[in-house]
Amino acid sequence: MSDPAAGQPKPARMQGVETAQVAVGQSVTIQVVEETARIDKRVVETGRVRVSTRTETVDQVLRESLRSDTIEVTRVPVNRTLSEGEVPPVAREEDGVTIIPVLEEILVVEKRLVLKEELHIRRSSTDEDVEVPVTLRKQHAVVERVSPDGHASEHTDPHSTQEATS
Q1: Which of 31, 52, 122, 134 is most buried per CB count within 10 Å?
Q2: What is the SS3 assignment for 14?
Q3: 3-state secondary structure of 6
Q4: DSSP 3-state assignment of 7?
Q5: pTM score
Q6: Rounded CA gap, 101 and 62, in Å?
């Protein structure tokens, strides 16, 4: 018996390759070649980054006006007996002065209401300008890119360079 494949034309990729005749009952081993792909990863240092902060101090003098109030109390003797049915005086304000009546009951053959004294309270204000020295701090972020050969280049954060206004 002859090999039926022997009479067929060779595929294009097999042309120019010598073929061997195999007899019936004989075995031939054909090597099959296979390519495989593999991906490996490795860490490659291309540079480093160093981040630090710098704190600046700014001395300033804060100025502000302070107000203080003083109270002056004057006792004004009245010693007037209130007449029968007269309404006792109440606290009042006259020309920026607060007047608080002080009443006393005294025992006579009869009970009478006597206006003993009035307290006159005056308020006055003074303004005083003060200056207080203070130290303010401001930080900047500094980022340095360090290349593999050891050269460092510095980049300052542009947002941290703006000064705060007060």
Answers
A1: 122
A2: helix
A3: helix
A4: helix
A5: 0.37
A6: 45
